[in-house]
Amino acid sequence: MSTMLAWSITAAQVLLGLAMACAAFRILWGPRAQDRIVGFDTLSVNTMLLLLAFGIRSGSALYFESALIVGLLGFVSTVALAKFLLRGEVIE
Amino acid sequence: MNDVMEVPSLPTVLTATLLIAGAAVTLIGSFGLLRFRGFYQRVHAPTLGTTLGTIFIATASMIYFSALGTRPALHELLVIVFVITTTPITLTILVRAARFRDGAGSE
Q: What is the ipTM of this complex?
């Protein structure tokens, strides 16, 4: 791996970490529940992208599958939380 | 780690550029999540940012692994199709839930 690619992967990981920090701030200090759910969805997609960057750095195909699993779990749990917001208010 | 000159120059430059661009677009989208005021403004920014960032980073991974030649490099199309499909579904369901919670949801 050349030096330029290693530095660009490090820079991309730092940028993705800052994006995850923004999403974590919205999870912790979100005023309402739907803000926290949007923050969680963004956090899961950023985790998936960070795993793709780790996969480029290590050169193995294992990180790709974990990235796919993290993306799937993030989507399913976001939809489940949004449906909980809808249906909890309906019952109440 | 791989060897130094295993990958030729042009795929390396393309991979580095697409990685930086995708990470920057994702950061801009997540920063919009931090900066906008209301929920209905706030929900737009991360969906746009993460979709374009996922396209860029998955394309970078595709180019790099097809240049390495360790595996056929079309797996990342799965990630791109998945993100493009699921992001509008998430946006729609969340906005519907938020409108319901704000009291506008008789429909």
A: 0.85
Q: How far is CA B35 from each of CA A25, A43, A46, A66, B32, rounded to the nearest angstrom?
A: 11, 16, 18, 31, 5
Tokens of B69: 């030649």
Query: Hey, how many other C-beta atoms are within 10 angstroms of the C-beta on A46?
Result: 32
Taking contacts as CB-CB distances below 8 angstroms, the residues of chain B near A23 are: 30, 33, 46
Question: Domains in chain A, ordered, with CATH?
Answer: 3-91 (1.10.287)
Per-residue pLDDT of B48-69, as tens digits, reads 889 999 999 999 998 888 888 7
The answer to whether the CB of A56 falls within 8 A of the CB of B15 is yes
> Which sequence spans correspond to the domains of chain B?
9-101
